[in-house]
Amino acid sequence: MVRVITFLTDFGSFYLSQMKGVILQRTGDVVFVEISNDIPPQDVMSGAFALMVASRYFPPGTIHIAVVDPGVGTERAAICVKSGGHVFIGPDNGILLPAARALGSPVAWMLDVPEDASPTFHGRDVFARTAAEMICGTPIEDLGTPFEPHDLDLGSPRIVANGIEASVIYVDDFGNVVLNMRRLPESDVRLMGRRLRRVRTYGEAGWNESLITLGSHGFAEIAVNGGSAAELFGLSTGDKILLEDMSCSE
Questions:
Q1: β-pairing, 240-245 with 189-191?
Q2: What is the pLDDT of residues 94-146, one digit of tens each?
Q3: Theoretical Cys-Cys bridge with 157: which of 89, 98, 133, 166, CB 3.0 to 4.6 Å?
Q4: Furthest CA-CA distance within the chain
Q5: Ranges of H-type helices in the chain
Q6: 233, 224 in Cβ contact below 8 A?
Q7: In this predicted model, which residue has the larger pLDDT, 248 or 174?
Q8: Residue 205: what pLDDT?
Q9: Average pLDDT for 139-156
Q10: 156 vs 166: CA distance, rounded Å
């Protein structure tokens, strides 16, 4: 049976090819899919969000390798998580858990790190090897010991007297700013003094008009029709914002 292996990394260069090579040395019965190879460097939250959104569209049996790993070589654990028929492999820094939790009830194992593993490239020497072992039939239970993984909470919006407090959990290549909100405000709001028009599609807003809409991923996002909301408002992943109720600011 041909298995699917996805990759999500912040490498942005030739490192991913080495991970694929490690797997292909063991088996050719695999389809590689790159979810993203350009997650912002060391941005674990962006990686967790992208993995959570993308993994739901792959069939059961898929192995997802996610490597955004600022703690590589330290005492942070290398883990394998099983949930909803999918397997997630990567560092224990929270990047795997939002995706695993969205698909089912995660069960995790801590992986052994081979003595010859590079302390700066566990993607190749730990995570890719683990995926190859699984493809070749080694049960996940034989690859590590039960483990309670580190979680990453994307948080929830908070209603306050003058609006909604939310956090930025992702910024895409268009400069659209994704928030930890699964519902839109009831009407237009303001951000940093600028009105955000509540719309269903980008095209409903005027050119260069700021807007808020529900993205295809199911989360609210701030955008500028024809521009970059991230640049306009100076926002990046992890920032907290206040969406001000228009009735409180007029």
A1: antiparallel
A2: 999 999 999 999 999 999 999 999 999 999 999 999 999 999 999 988 999 99
A3: 166
A4: 65
A5: 15-24, 44-55, 97-103, 122, 128-135, 229-233, 246-249
A6: no
A7: 174
A8: 96
A9: 93
A10: 7
- Residue 71 makes CB contacts below 8 A (sequence gap 6+) with 91, 93
Is the pLDDT score of 247 beyond 80?
no
Q: If pLDDT is split at 50, 70 and 90, which confidence band does 248 have?
A: low
CB count, 10 Å around CB of 46? 25
Domains, the chain: 3-147 (3.40.50.10790), 158-249 (2.40.30.90)
- Contact status, residue 26 vs residue 1, Cβ threshold 8 Å: no
> What is the per-residue pLDDT for 13?
84
Q: For residue 178, give every residue at least 6 positions away whose Cβ sits within 8 Å of its Cβ, in sequence order, or none.
A: 49, 168, 169, 170, 171, 172, 215, 217, 219, 220, 221
The CA-atom distances, in angstroms, between 119 and each of 22, 27, 109, 116, 125 are: 17, 25, 20, 9, 9
Calpha distance 246→185 (Å, rounded): 11
Query: Residues 13-27: what's their mean pLDDT?
Result: 95
Nearest alpha-carbon partner for 93 in 44, 55, 143: 44
Q: 């967790």: which residue's tokens?
A: 48
User: Given pLDDT bands bounded at 50, 70 and 90, which one contains residue 250?
Assistant: very low
Burial class of residue 107, CB neighbours in 10 A (0-12, 13-18, 19+): middle
